[in-house]
């Protein structure tokens, strides 16, 4: 059972999940065996019976039965979800504190039937299928009035032994809008009220005009290293057309997004010696549609060790690489 608890000082919600099992040597040993041998991997083709029933699947075979092989991508409920889709929210007071049950959705996108597929070898359709699945799941999860915000998170690289190595990503639907998201929305709104323009649209225009931090550009998207990058080689991918909601993306835009993501991943993996990479989708909260002051974007964060790690607990990030230099190396 999981539970949200609000910090009375900072006002943010913390998810307490007793199902997370850290430091369990037996669990780690099992996971290592799963990772090294596709025969034991529940995400591999032929092992569909080892997972919960699929929510969504893409296949070239129109006659394929659910939960059988022959798929290109599957979406399933997480076997050990941090949130329970069957739970009610039930906000409660506990003395000076607030809490509520861990209601929400936690889903896994199994991105390919191939256990050891690498980004550099992945076809363009691999990336297109991922973003089509994200769009489909956001549109469906919008129908649940309990949910306030959705995250799409992708981790790549040298993952801990307790995390499945088969290429996959996660969709998490929350009954709250996280404090950091609200702060980002508030900052964008302040800029909009002052200048009557979207700050993200201005970032795009200046990124194109200046070019020092520009990484890639096509008809629909721009990729750049943010001016005040928090992390070394941090990358943002942003649509040129103002849109606050990712699920309004068209098929043509998905194809263009897949091309630019594949290119950037390949460059990052090559330049940074295959270091772990985290990708997060930033999109408007579910119940705040078509915002004039907010712009969806994808944030790519290489997980490189940072000198002077004082950002933990302080909010002060130290980045040892100027974004202009990061962009120059990535372009090269």
Provide structural commentary.
The protein has 332 residues and is an alpha+beta fold. 27% of the residues lie in helices and 22% in strands. It is built from six helices and 14 strands. The strands form two sheets. A ten-stranded antiparallel sheet has the order 3-4-7-9-8-13-14-12-11-10, with helices on both faces. Strands 2-1-6-5 form a four-stranded antiparallel sheet, with no helix packed on it. Helix 2 packs across helix 5. The model is unreliable at 22-36 (pLDDT under 50).
Q: Roughly what is the average pLDDT, rounded to an integer?
A: 86
SSE string, helix = H, strand = E? EEHEEEEEHEEHHEEEHEEH
Principal-axis shape equals globular
* CATH domain topology of the largest domain: HIT family, subunit A
Helix-residue proportion? 25-40%
Judged by helices, strands and strand pairing, the structural class is: alpha+beta
Number of domains: 2
Largest sheet: 10 strands, antiparallel
C-alpha termini separation: 49 Å
Low-pLDDT segments, ≥5 res:
22-36
In CATH, what is the homologous superfamily of the largest domain?
A: HIT-like
Please work out how many helical segments DSSP would assign.
Answer: 6
Total strands: 14
According to CATH, what is the class of the largest domain? Answer: Alpha Beta
Any idea what the radius of gyration is?
A: 20 Å
- The main sheet orders its strands as 3-4-7-9-8-13-14-12-11-10
Strand content: 15-25%
CATH architecture descriptor text of the largest domain: 2-Layer Sandwich
């Amino acid at each position: 059972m999981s539970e949200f608890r609000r910090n009375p000082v900072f006002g943010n919600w913390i998810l307490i999940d007793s199902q997370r099992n850290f430091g369990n040597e037996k669990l780690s040993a099992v996971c290592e065996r799963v990772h090294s041998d596709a025969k034991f991997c529940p995400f591999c083709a032929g092992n569909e019976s080892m997972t919960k029933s699929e929510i969504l699947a893409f296949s070239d075979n129109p006659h394929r039965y659910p939960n059988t092989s022959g798929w290109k991508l599957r979406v399933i409920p997480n076997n050990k979800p941090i949130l329970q889709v069957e739970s009610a929210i039930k906000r409660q007071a506990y003395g000076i504190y607030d809490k509520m049950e861990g209601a929400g959705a936690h889903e896994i996108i199994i991105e390919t039937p191939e256990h050891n597929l690498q980004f550099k070898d992945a076809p363009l359709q691999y990336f297109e299928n991922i973003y089509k699945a994200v769009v489909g799941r956001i549109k469906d999860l919008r129908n649940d009035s309990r949910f306030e915000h959705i995250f799409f998170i992708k981790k790549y690289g040298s993952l801990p032994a307790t995390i499945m190595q088969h290429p996959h990503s996660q969709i998490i639907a929350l009954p709250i809008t996280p404090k950091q998201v609200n702060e980002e929305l508030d900052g964008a709104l302040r800029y909009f009220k002052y200048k009557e323009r979207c700050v993200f649209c201005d970032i795009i225009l200046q990124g194109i005009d200046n070019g020092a931090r520009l990484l890639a550009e096509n008809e629909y998207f721009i990729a750049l290293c943010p001016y005040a990058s928090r992390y070394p080689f941090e990358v943002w991918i942003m649509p040129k057309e103002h849109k606050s909601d990712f699920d309004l993306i068209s098929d043509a835009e998905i194809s263009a997004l897949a091309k630019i993501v594949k290119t950037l991943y390949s460059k990052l993996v090559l330049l940074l010696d295959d270091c772990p990479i985290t990708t997060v989708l930033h999109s408007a909260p579910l119940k705040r549609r078509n915002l004039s002051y907010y712009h969806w974007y994808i944030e790519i964060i290489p997980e490189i060790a940072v000198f002077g790690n004082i950002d933990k607990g302080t909010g002060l990030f130290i980045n040892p690489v100027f974004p202009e230099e990061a962009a120059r190396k990535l372009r090269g």
